[in-house]
Amino acid sequence: MNEGILKLKPPARLTALQKKQASEVLTKAFQEDQVFVKIIPDTVERTISLQYLWHAVITYCSIYGVIYTDTPIHGVACWLSPGNTEMTLWRMFRTGLPFTRALMKFSGQTRSRFLEVLDYIDMAHKTLGDMPHWYLWTLGVEPEFQHQGIGGKLIEPVLSQAYTDGIACYLETQSESNVAYYKKCGFTVLTEVEVPAGNIVIWTMLREPHT
After folding, report:
1. For residue range 119-154, what is the model confidence (pLDDT) as tens digits?
2. What's residue 5's pLDDT?
3. Taking a C-beta distance cutoff of 8 angstroms, is the pair 65, 84 a contact?
4. Burial of 87 per CB tally in 10 Å (0-12, 13-18, 19+)
5. Whole domain around residue 20: which residue ranges?
6. DSSP 8-state assignment for residue 165
7. 2 located within any domain
């Protein structure tokens, strides 16, 4: 365990100057993630693709949500705020089409696999209808700093705000161990679906208002 992380500082909002570093941290966090390994088997392509992908997520969330990180940056939590959880064409244009640019960096097969998974995620998300909710889009911690409480600290500000405001929180995960983790945070499983591309299982989870 790293001594510098033993005493965790309160999470802070990500600044514009920290965006590049945050993208790098998320890339490290998901580099060996089994879902991304299935979607992007080639190691070099995976690193490059993830860098563009997380840059797009951070760019989008900077405008339509909130991003929390620790000091120094070892983890990142990206949320979309209530009323902004749907990715519309206007919002895409307003943020500079970061996802379109990211997808253009993917190889053809990688792009097809990624879009298939994305379609399932989008369909599952739409089952919430018009329910106001915070959407935990991404939570990642560098591998060497995992299991030290950083992730929990980073999502706590929004979970607390959502509880106070009586707003639900929603997320997807492709890891069964994460399901158990988020259950401890008050989430319950809504759906469990297997995506044909790579035999990837997706769990959707909801934290009811005032849970």
Report:
1. 989 988 988 888 999 999 999 999 999 989 999 999
2. 43
3. yes
4. middle
5. 10-207
6. H
7. no
Provide the token pair at 127. 């089952």
- Position 4 in a domain: no
Structure letter (DSSP) for residue 18: G
CA 188 to chain centre: 17
DSSP H helices, the chain, are 19-30, 34-39, 43-64, 89-94, 98-104, 108-126, 150-165, 176-184
Residue 175 token pair: 């890891």
Indicate the SS3 state at residue 172: strand
Query: Residue 184 burial (CB < 10 Å; 0-12/13-18/19+)?
Result: exposed
Query: Would residue 192 count as lying in a domain?
Result: yes
- Which value, to the nearest 10 degrees, does the dihedral of the CA atoms of residues 171, 174, 177, 178 take? -20
Positions of the chain with pLDDT lower than 50, given as ranges: 1-6
Residue 1 has a pLDDT of 41
Model pTM score? 0.91
Torsion (CA) 110, 115, 121, 125 in degrees, nearest 10:
150
Q: Is residue 88 part of a domain?
A: yes
State the total domains in the chain.
1
CATH code where residue 71 lies: 3.40.630.30
pLDDT confidence of residue 194: 86
